[in-house]
Write a structure and sequence with these properties.
Blueprint lengths: L1 H10 L4 H11 L65 H11 L2 H13 L3 H14 L4 H14 L5 H13 L6 H13 L3 H13 L6 H13 L3 H12 L7 H7 L4 H12 L2
Helix pairs in contact: 1-5, 4-5, 6-7, 6-8, 8-9, 8-10, 9-10, 9-11, 10-13
Length: about 270
């Protein structure tokens, strides 16, 4: 609750002066203070010089807005989305245009909200400490925003999502649990179950605990694609790293009918 209160104070300016100050702090191109981290607020250049040269309309934005408007107040523990989702997630040209013109504030809020709801309040506060204390938008927000846009755009862009993640690592930017959860769910929704499973294992290798929505999306994909035996191998690998699925959470997190539900329950719990 302390983490949520701190974030609300930062994102709920009550006076015109505080609105201006918060807008400056949350700007993705604010001038950083001396001796900043090399992985914070650096120019994020998503230049697909090879495969994406023939598709400039969906290339990620080279720069972000200077003075984004703050979104309305929100409750990090509400079941409602922290911010509105794009009306057309497949319209990448429009989404990247909005990133350039409106900035990354909404994406930072979504990341904070996701981390907080998973109980990662310390990580959530660290994220906003960078914004508040250094006046810089963390690079993990920028990279994850582009990754999430590709992940939500549908099966045609699953390679773009993975490529964005690889470029993120190559740039020296460390992902957090929200980043990897977005990648896993996006790949699973595109029926790329093996790739989704790979990043579930990476989460565990990084000592991150995937939430039920994230790991359930991957195992549902294995069932849909009729790759149950591969799913069982993944489960054994994950258990070897200390993972244990929560039956009650799985039952409440999936549709309780149909062959997918029965297949998931059999895969995870032998039922």
């Amino acid at each position: 609750m302390a983490a949520a209160a701190a974030a609300r104070r930062l994102l709920r300016p009550s006076t015109p002066a505080s609105v201006s100050n918060a807008s400056r702090l949350l700007s993705s191109t604010s001038s950083p203070p001396p001796h900043r981290s090399p992985n914070t607020n650096s120019p994020v250049a998503f230049d697909w010089s090879d495969d994406d040269a023939d598709n400039p309309a969906t290339s990620p934005p080279p720069a972000m807005a200077k003075n984004p408007e703050l979104p309305p107040p929100y409750d990090p523990f509400s079941k409602k989305p922290a911010v509105a989702e794009p009306s057309d997630p497949t319209n990448l040209q429009q989404i990247f245009h909005q990133m350039r013109t409106e900035g990354l504030t909404d994406y930072a809020i979504k990341m904070f909200d996701g981390l907080s709801k998973d109980g990662l309040t310390h990580e959530a506060l660290e994220l906003f400490a960078v914004i508040k204390d250094k006046g810089a938008m963390p690079d993990v927000v920028a990279h994850t925003a582009v990754l999430e846009a590709y992940a939500n755009a549908g099966p045609a862009h699953w390679r773009d999502a993975m490529r964005t993640y690889d470029r993120m690592l190559a740039s020296g930017v460390e992902p957090n649990a929200y980043t990897l959860a977005v990648l896993v769910r996006g790949l699973a929704a595109s029926d790329r179950c093996s790739e989704a499973g790979r990043y579930l294992v990476e989460m565990l290798n990084r000592r991150m605990r995937p939430n039920v929505v994230t790991y359930l999306s991957a195992f549902e994909a294995y069932v849909r694609m009729e790759k149950v035996e591969e799913g069982k191998l993944l489960l054994e690998t994950m258990k070897g790293k200390g993972f244990m699925p929560d039956e009650e959470a799985v039952r409440s997190g999936t549709v309780k009918r149909g062959h997918v539900f029965r297949g998931v329950m059999n895969l995870l719990f032998g039922k």
